[in-house]
Task: structure prediction
Amino acid sequence: MNQQTNPDREARNILIANDRGGYTIPTEGLYPYQWNWDSAIAALGFAEFDNDRAWTELETLFSGQWSDGMVPHILFHKSDPGYFPGPDVWGCNGPIPSSGIIQPPIAATMARRIWEKDRTVGEARVRALFPAMLAWHRWVMKWRLDDRGAVCTTHPWETGRDNAPDWDNTMARIDASDVGEYQRRDTSHVNSEDRPTKFDYDRYIKLVQIGRQSNWDQQTLLSANPFRVADPTMSFTSLRAARDLLALSAALGIEADGLEDDIARLEAGALSLWNDDLGSFDSRDAHSGEWSESVSNASYMCWFAGIDSEKMLDRLRHTLDTVPYPIPSYDPDMPKFDARRYWRGPTWAIINMMVGIGLNDMGHTKEAEQLRAKTGDLISAYGFAEYFDPTTGSPAGGNAFTWTAAVWLHWAG
Ligand code: 2M8
Result:
């Protein structure tokens, strides 16, 4: 236990210490670059004490936007040998050296929240960012939808839920026998038992090689990439982003054609991820149509997208009553549950926050408050870890973690 004396101050200090000048790294050592959705959450945390700095975070993120609208999952502002795979492996040619995939598009949602917190500082900044945020949304609509309107991930890293059991069947079909030699860096920073396996890493790198061979051309990758899975993380965050962009365009009087149609399409897609036999939102392989049969913490993000579900609410109540430190990233009653291995069981404060925000928006205030209080207790007892064992609360992965600190400042604390 690491009971904190002044968690508000500690959380602010973590953001300040992880600030590399206009952008924030997730944690020293393990993740030395600017990650896309981490950065959007960092901005939310900064907005609690420095609104100007919050906007700078988002502006730096969008300074890496490609000319077609894509916003990369990592921006390699300064090369750092402590992380693999770095810019030389990705081989991308955007305005800033970067990866060639995205992450869940939550920046527009966070921009709206930051603007609502202080409209004086935010007015000009959100107006200036709006076209870039809209362009990214349109890129997602163009390149990531399946035929039912669900949003697909084209690499496990794209969802941010790297080694979730959702991908197991699709990953098992990928031949990575020719991936070659490479040196992982993550396991030199943190316990390898808490990280993805070599089997998964070989396929992560193989998928990067396929992307690079295709010159990161999305049209080519539609057929060249064996990994394409319609997923709740991408689908719920994209739908939420479209709703927030529409709200911003109305409030600011900015034209943004097509958003209503996009929302209808994304809504149909998100609903198509309901797996009735499983009784949960689930992931579906876009090539084979096969379900993952996976109840993850992303399954509970339906409310964040404005989709209500009595069955998910029952599940959530059960989880809140039975799991000591919810929400586990994989259902503890399922055989693949692993309390410490990254996205295969541990609890992640950022997902809890997005679930909590959604619950609150949709009037489920009792459950929202329960989840908020439990997340707050977890962080104040065990510190600002990357993630937590849901059965014991014990911290795992990196520490002094930006998004856990930001979640504390914005929501849990
Ligand atoms: C983790 O992912 C990176 C690859 O993007 C990694 O393991 O090297 C995930 O938890 C992801 O969601 C997160 O954005 C990133 C940085 O915190 O780390």
About this structure: The longest strand covers residues 34-35. The two ends are 17 Å apart (CA to CA). The mean pLDDT is 97.
